[in-house]
Amino acid sequence: MRQSGDRPQQFLSFLLNIIGILLDGTIIAVKQLSSKSKQGNREFVNEIGMISGLQHPNLVRLYGCCIEANELLLVYEYMENNSLAGALFGPEESPLKLDWPTRQKIFLGIAKGLAFLHEESALKVVHRDIKTTNVLLDKDLNAKISDFGLAKLDEEENTHISTRVAGTIGYMAPEYALWGYLTFKADVFSFGVVALEIVAGKNNMKFRPNEDFVGLVDWALVLQQKESLVELVDPK
């Protein structure tokens, strides 16, 4: 694993990732995938192919990759404030507090990243797994989209992509989850779920105000029909 001729000097274990420090002092994050898993191999190749050709302030930067024994390693820029999920759904005593201007900045950052993937990049890409754990925050709380292991290139001559369904329950668009009908709109639907979570400060799949609701999106729809959407807003 090298960047500008340097190599990682120090590593600390951190969940499924590793934090590394290059000789020039640059802090990096290393994602580990197992080569024994077919899914791991696919995601490794897909991630390199996709993100290596994409550069944007709201996409996590890939520095390089390495294959070591049975481990596949992807080297990224280090994101000091980890994931949006941790910031929104972490413990109450967490030092990271998201005020409304910051939430708006995060919301716009994700939107700009998706606009680049869908419209502005030479490669038109459907991410397929937009969710709060795949949005990372840097030291200034700028949002960057990560994890392109499931991403698909858009084929402009076709109206949609028919593909094996992959993603995260609770964030997948209905037409994609049910029939594998994939367009950019699938990412837009996922972005809408993330937007609701940013406003509400609640996890779509874990929030159930009572047994009549199956998640945050379900609850938001009922509140809209009752013209009571203000109840959705995070009191924090």
Explain how this protein is built.
The termini are far apart. The longest helix is centred in the middle third of the chain and has 21 residues. The protein has 6 helices and 11 strands. It is globular. With 236 residues, the chain is an alpha+beta fold. The strands form 4 sheets. Strands 1-2-3-5-4 form a 5-stranded antiparallel sheet, with helices on one face. It folds into 2 domains: 70 residues, Phosphorylase Kinase, domain 1 (2-Layer Sandwich), CATH 3.30.200.20; 149 residues, Transferase(Phosphotransferase), domain 1 (Orthogonal Bundle).
Please summarize what this structure is.
With 236 residues, the chain is of the alpha+beta class. The chain folds into two domains: 8-77, Phosphorylase Kinase, domain 1, CATH 3.30.200.20; 84-232, Transferase(Phosphotransferase) domain 1 (Transferase(Phosphotransferase), domain 1, Orthogonal Bundle).
Question: How is this fold's topology laid out?
Answer:
Blueprint: E1 8-14, E2 17-22, E3 27-34, H1 38-51, E4 62-68, E5 71-77, H2 84-89, H3 100-120, E6 125-126, E7 135-137, E8 143-145, E9 152-153, E10 161-162, H4 174-179, E11 181-182, H5 184-200, H6 216-225
Antiparallel strand pairs: 1-2, 2-3, 3-5, 4-5, 6-9, 7-8, 10-11
Subcellular location: Membrane
InterPro entries: Kinase-like_dom_sf, LRR_Rcpt-Like_S/T_Kinase, Prot_kinase_dom, Ser-Thr/Tyr_kinase_cat_dom, Ser/Thr_kinase_AS
Domain Protein kinase: 1-236
